[in-house]
């Protein structure tokens, strides 16, 4: 679900070169300063030039869109305060005097960037046009972003900001000149799922994460607000959910008249995994036979869709644990009368789905609702026209099953996009560790291990193995940050820059013009981008020693 700044997710012509102008650089040649994610098309005329940014620099934006005006002020301030120093000094010539010349002895200066937008009122929603074109003339006399929508113009502002750096020799902010960018995303859905149900994150950490997403041209913040462990969201019509379910002194999740197996130990018999009450510690599932369940469900859906205007509503439905429902006396009686757990789930989904659609939302479910072997619903309960399924198991196989059933798919394969994997498990008194060899050669003590490196994330093709017709149903992907072992102290490093890897793969692809995977070429660029993110206050983890960046190619496996 796309949002901006705390929203429930989902949430966000030019003069031509004269014949005498410098020749454009090859599109595949390394550039002195790079943009992440790599644009669809970018040229920088040779010899590479840069222009000083005036101390009075500003962005000229059309009136009529408050979000764009705010972005214009924000990016102008970012540029004026820029102190990013590239790890490798850019080999550029700084423009001399002439048109746009600044103070005596300072040469040319860029005073403003102009935004030209066709449709200022296009709403922020799935599929909105994010394309833009950016041109900075060779002498630095003018810079323009042209876009169909305000949201595309914001993408152009971000690209412009990444073409700027602080030059100590000039004691000035410089920006590339003679640059032309034409850019648009491959996929309309490029997201991060953050789980705040297991760990509470202060608002400042969430907002910093959303800002970092915008810098990476990601557009979907999937806010997994609640889970069986906590319900921290205050809702007007159901205040007891947060009062009893949120973390805090003396607070517990004890809504006993709604929930089966609430407060029970999750694994009554360690030798009988199928009898577990939950997939992990924190048992509790809504009881679809309890009438009050539907009253609460209706109130929650109405409140959430009123709080957050996004066009997607994620209704969950993953990992329904049979043992929990089987242990409930009322459900035992239902099963004795010939009922099934799948029909029980369909009773709940069949009530929730029409309500979600009535609120003018597309319902999003985890793949389990259709593909789980033990508990699932029929396709009639979740019509493809109003449903998107999010896949997380079995890599491309489940994506294929979903699109062949006619559903649109969001890809979050645990084998590639789960950022929590490979850090062991959080269950206590695990006797497996009595054997010091117990996790040698295994998945790092984690069900979804090993750790997903940025290269593994970057290389994944979300539509791999699909026909062209099937691939059209893949709307994009999300990296997932489940937080059993993550809190605010480690959030940035767990997410970034690995989420950046997915951001580029879904924006402009992970292959070069010849069709070869470009992770090798991306290494230096991602190192630079991580360095810039750190300068912006995002505590992203490093991917290589700086020695490697200062000696291009010396850290490669093959010379």
From TrEMBL:
Residues 1-27 form the signal peptide. InterPro entries: Beta_hexosaminidase_sua/sub, GH, Glyco_hydro_20_cat, Hex-like_dom2, HEX_eukaryotic_N. Residues 187-251, 269-509 form the Glycoside hydrolase family 20 catalytic domain. The keyword Glycoprotein applies. Keywords: Glycoprotein, Glycosidase, Hydrolase, Signal. It comes from the Eukaryota. This is Beta-hexosaminidase. It comes from Oryza nivara.
